[in-house]
Amino acid sequence: xxxxxxxxxxxxxxxxxSINIFGVILVVLFIILRLVDINTSSYIIQCRNxxxxxxxxxxxxxxxxxxxxxxxxILIIFIGSFVLSxxxxxxxxxxxxxILYFGIFxxxxxxxxxxxxxxxx
Length: 121
Known about the structure:
By secondary structure, the chain is mostly helical. It is 72% helix and 7% strand.
């Protein structure tokens, strides 16, 4: 019981957890709103050899499942970073904070990649 009290009373970890939750909501809403806004059944889900403008089969198209996997990735990252941060808090507070930072970093990267794929459509 003292473990949960100490984790949830640490202001810095709660701040990072709040930023993490806000990031999850932001990325999920961004992807869902962009999917609703576009009236197409084919999306670019991969870009291979994007540095060469003459490359054949440069873009690989797919359905909506590619972007649903981004949403699942974000949720798995959030749950994983929260659980790992909670479990490692008693062992090392700095490690717990670092795990939350990496979760935020991965959410930002997923937002950038999904936005780039939506722009390429």
